[in-house]
Design a protein that fits this description.
The chain is of the alpha/beta class. The protein has two domains: 191 residues, Rossmann fold, CATH 3.40.50.12780; 108 residues, no CATH class. 46% of the residues lie in helices and 16% in strands. It is built from 15 helices and 14 strands. The strands form three sheets. Strands 7-6-5-3-4-8-9 form a seven-stranded mixed β-sheet, sandwiched between helices. Strands 2-1-11-10 form a four-stranded mixed β-sheet, with helices on both faces. Strands 12-13-14 form a three-stranded parallel β-sheet. α14 links the parallel β13 and β14. α1 crosses α2. The longest helix has 17 residues. The protein is globular. The relative contact order is 0.12. About 3% of the residues have low confidence.
């Protein structure tokens, strides 16, 4: 499979080029304390660059691996892009991973530094630190509960970036990263003892070339980031594809507010997992059962009509299904996709009745433009 000649060769190059072309355009949004705040390309590059310069100051670069253990949030994005710009590889650890899994990932990759979200995750890292000889620094995003905590190997993200701000020119380093260098390391969820999947910048960029064709994201799109960055469906097909296309990524106030944020945003793109669709379907089913008799009859008729299609589906959409989509934050969704485990038949049928076709991004491709026999196995293995 060939890449377009005008496409950046690496994720680091993509970041530098997009920033240069769109410095003032919004690329991320985050909700905190009930208020959405925006981050432009220039601000994203500045934040990633500050962290990247700190990493370079600690001699992090080609041949190194740096870990991130956090829920999906902007700071994790800044750290990930910073790591990639130094030429090191990035490995994301599930925020709910057990100590044994954390230890194996850190030891297998030889990670020297780990970015960690908060006190809860830091406690897990500290519990295995003694078994990870390469680990020398823990950088903490959220210092809540840690203001009186002191450890020579632990530092807040703000202090880390400020203290090492003159470590090196991150943007210049990003331009020297080559396509064959490792970019991301993926471990199977739950750590079943399988060896990690290591994807080079070239392989990730091949995936993004496919995403351009299969997903068709545009700068007019907006997505809600609900999956873990340890999942390739979020990391590659979510974040990186959004950066490539200019689609705005919106980050949750907390995992507990996912449904509320989905309702508020009404995104055009919804990349989720099977569990999310099962939750939405189950919530709709419970809501329907608790409604009045007339409402239940109307809902059941509309779902059947939506499933069958035709003129009845149009009427059902006008009278009932449009309201259902709005109520569940799906009124503007034009693209829904998942990776990994398939959506259950009942949830898949429910989405189809609402007029939403859920696309599997890890299905084998048969299009003539995607005929490289090496590419589909690579893409499927990435869903670790």
């Amino acid at each position: 499979m060939s890449q377009s000649s005008d496409m950046p060769r690496t994720l680091a190059e993509l970041m530098v080029e997009r920033t240069s072309a769109n410095p003032g355009k919004i690329i991320l949004r985050r909700k905190a304390r009930g208020i959405w705040s925006a981050v432009t390309w220039a601000q994203l590059a500045e934040k990633a660059g500050q962290i990247g310069e700190a990493l370079i100051g600690l001699d992090i670069g080609r041949g190194d691996t740096v870990a991130i253990m956090s829920e999906t949030r902007p700071e994790a994005v800044y750290a990930d892009l910073a790591i990639l710009g130094t030429g090191a590889a990035s490995v994301a650890i599930h925020a709910d991973a057990e100590a044994a899994t954390i230890e194996r990932i850190l030891c297998t990759t030889g990670a020297r530094i780990v970015f960690v979200e908060d006190e809860e995750r830091l406690d897990k890292i500290l519990s295995v630190r003694g078994a990870c000889p390469a680990l020398s620094r823990m950088v903490i995003f959220d210092m809540k509960g840690l203001r009186e905590f002191h450890d020579p190997q632990c530092v807040s993200l703000a202090s880390f970036a400020d203290r090492n701000a003159r470590g090196g020119d991150w943007a210049a380093a990003a331009r020297t990263v080559t396509a064959e260098q490792p970019a991301i390391v993926l471990f199977q969820r739950g750590d079943a003892g399988q060896p990690p999947v290591v994807l080079t910048h070239q392989q990730v960029m091949q995936m993004l070339a496919t995403a351009r064709q299969t997903l068709g994201l545009t700068p007019r799109d907006s997505r809600l980031a609900v999956l873990s960055m340890a999942e390739s469906a979020e990391r590659i097909w979510g974040l990186y594809a959004a950066l490539d296309s200019g689609c705005i990524s919106n980050y949750l106030e907390s995992p507990d507010t996912a449904f509320e944020n989905l309702q508020e945003l009404q995104p055009t793109v919804f990349g989720a997992d099977a569990e999310a669709w099962t939750h939405l379907h189950n919530t709709a089913t419970r809501t329907a059962k608790s409604a009045t008799h007339v409402q239940r009859v109307a809902y059941d008729w509309a779902i059947r009509a939506g499933r069958l299609g035709g003129s009845s589906a149009g009427l059902a959409n006008l009278l009932v299904l449009g309201w259902v989509r709005r109520e569940f934050g799906l009124s503007r969704v034009r693209l829904a996709y998942i990776g990994g485990e398939p959506v259950s038949p009942p949830a898949l049928d429910w989405a189809k009745s609402l007029g939403i076709a859920i696309q599997r991004i890890d299905e084998p491709m048969h299009d003539s433009h995607q005929s490289d026999p090496k590419f589909n196995p690579m893409m499927q293995r990435a869903h670790a």
